[in-house]
Write a structure and sequence with these properties.
There is one protein chain. The protein has about 280 residues and is an alpha/beta fold. Helix content is about 45%, strand content about 15%. The chain has a single domain (about 10-205, about 210-275), classed as Rossmann fold, CATH 3.40.50.720. A 7-stranded parallel beta sheet has the order 3-2-1-4-5-6-7, sandwiched between helices. It contains 8 helices and 7 strands; from the N terminus they run βαβαβαβαβαβααβα. It binds nicotinamide-adenine-dinucleotide. Nicotinamide-adenine-dinucleotide binds next to helix 1.
Length: about 280
């Protein structure tokens, strides 16, 4: 897709961070923008912040881990604008620690629900709509460098982000075989200056950890502080949006925004091919 004017974009997790950066760029490109996210007040605040672009916008409160919410998001989008051309499955959450066995079941369910089921639902609902439109379309799924590497401390985060890379690659092949007019990108950024370290703010009450299951230790505090600092020093969401739009124009599947980590990805692939242990 090279011409964005008057096309319709749906962005999940659009109230802040990378989602907001992409929604802002969509608005500047003259697209009609559907801002989807879990908190309506934050969506309206984001819409206000984008008023100056004069873009036509629609806020739809959406919990991406809930299929009915995604179905309603699609319905409201079509009712308002008649079609959809760009879907950005971006909403995601993370924790700063937790091995496979130390992460609680609630951690697993929450991250699997938002980061993985959210993308699966988005694709199951929107791909058939795009196929039936038979217009030029593009889908961007937000994964992470954590979807290409595995040393991030949070096991559920890694697992979901690797799955989003696999989902995107699989979708790419399926659509290519079908000769569909839908292109796919998977966004794999390193540190970006967003609110991701405060993901707990959107964790549903029934999936909150009990205080005794997450004892606070000096090590935990040090990891969290390190994360906060890395995020604060990270790339701006606007710069990430530039990479995303360049990839859409170039019909590029993989979007790697932090080239200083390319050697880590290369080393992982070389280790796999040489059947060599990482440590
Ligand atoms: N910030 C980084 O360093 C970084 C790096 C790699 C990948 N990512 C990915 O980028 C994406 C966006 O995160 P961000 O960094 O902008 O953080 P962020 O916290 O600023 O934005 C995440 C957005 O998702 C929304 N959200 C959370 N749960 C939701 C749900 N159930 N349904 C709908 N919306 C929900 C939040 O309200 C928020 O607006 C995530 O998928 C994240 O994993 C971030």
């Amino acid at each position: 897709m090279k011409d964005f004017r008057n096309k319709v974009a749906v962005v999940t997790g659009a109230a802040s961070g990378i989602g907001f950066g992409i929604a802002e760029r969509c608005a500047h490109e003259g697209m009609k923008v559907v801002l989807a996210g879990i908190n309506q007040e934050n969506l309206i605040r984001a819409e206000k912040a984008l008023k100056h672009t004069n873009a036509t916008m629609l806020c739809v409160q959406t919990d991406v881990s809930n299929l009915e919410d995604i179905e309603a998001l699609a319905r409201e989008t079509l009712d308002a604008f008649g079609s959809v051309h760009l879907l950005v499955n971006n909403a995601g959450v993370g924790t700063t620690d937790g091995s496979v066995w130390e992460s609680t079941l609630e951690d697993w369910q929450w991250m699997m629900g938002v980061n993985l089921w959210g993308v699966i639902y988005g694709l199951r609902v929107f791909v058939p709509i795009m196929l039936s439109q038979d217009t030029e379309c593009h889908i961007v799924n937000t994964s992470s460098l954590g979807g290409l590497l595995s040393y991030h401390p949070s096991a559920p985060y890694h697992v979901t982000k690797h799955a989003v890379v696999a989902l995107s690659e699989n979708l790419y092949y399926s659509l290519a075989v079908k000769k569909a007019n839908i292109k796919v990108s998977v966004l794999c950024p390193g540190w970006v200056n967003t609110k991701i370290v405060d993901s707990e703010r959107s964790r549903p009450a029934d999936l909150r950890n009990k205080a005794e299951s997450t004892p606070v230790s000096p090590e935990h505090n040090a990891i969290e502080e390190g994360f906060r600092q890395a995020i604060q020093a990270g790339m701006s969401p606007q710069e990430v949006a530039d990479y995303v739009f360049e990839a859409i124009v170039n019909e590029q599947l993989y979007i790697l925004t932090h080239s200083d980590h390319n050697s880590d990805v290369k080393k992982r692939v070389e280790n796999i091919l040489a059947q060599r242990n990482p440590l």
